[in-house]
Write a structure and sequence with these properties.
about 140 residues, mainly alpha, 2 domains, 5 helices, about 0% strand, rod-shaped
């Protein structure tokens, strides 16, 4: 029998020549179980989160979709969330999930916002005006 180099100074009182091999087999079995569990969690967590969040919050966006797109882009431009370090799609997904709305074509909506004649930030101006009214009353 050819011994592995790592067995050069093993203690016969505590181990045999095949203990390390057996330990490797058991470790790989445990690793396989762990990885299967993590993969299952990875592929099922988003659905669980959606269910939990929809049960926890019952908010529905009641303004029009373009207003929400304007708000999303404003939040990124202001760097109000994660210092602006995120993809617009991530914030769109967040709002779609939490406000029960579909924002298909949000890039096109932003293009339409940029092409507005006169005031481009109509919704944000309305928000500011509504807040100022609330503060004064």
């Amino acid at each position: 029998m050819i011994l592995e180099s790592y067995l050069a100074d093993f203690d016969l009182n505590y181990t045999t020549s095949h203990c390390f091999k057996m330990a490797q087999v058991l470790a790989f079995d445990e690793l396989q179980v762990y990885l299967k569990q993590k993969m299952t969690e990875f592929f099922h967590i988003p659905q669980k989160k959606r269910v939990l969040q929809k049960q926890k919050f019952n908010f529905k966006w009641s303004a029009n979709k373009r207003d929400l797109v304007e708000l999303i882009y404003a939040l990124q431009a202001k760097r109000a969330i994660n210092n602006g370090q995120f993809e617009i799609k991530e914030l769109v997904d967040f709002f779609e999930l939490n406000f029960d709305i579909q924002l298909n074509g949000y890039y096109n909506e932003f293009t339409k916002i940029k092409e507005r004649k006169g005031i481009n930030t109509r919704f944000l101006d309305e928000l500011k005006s509504a807040l100022l009214d609330k503060i004064r009353n």
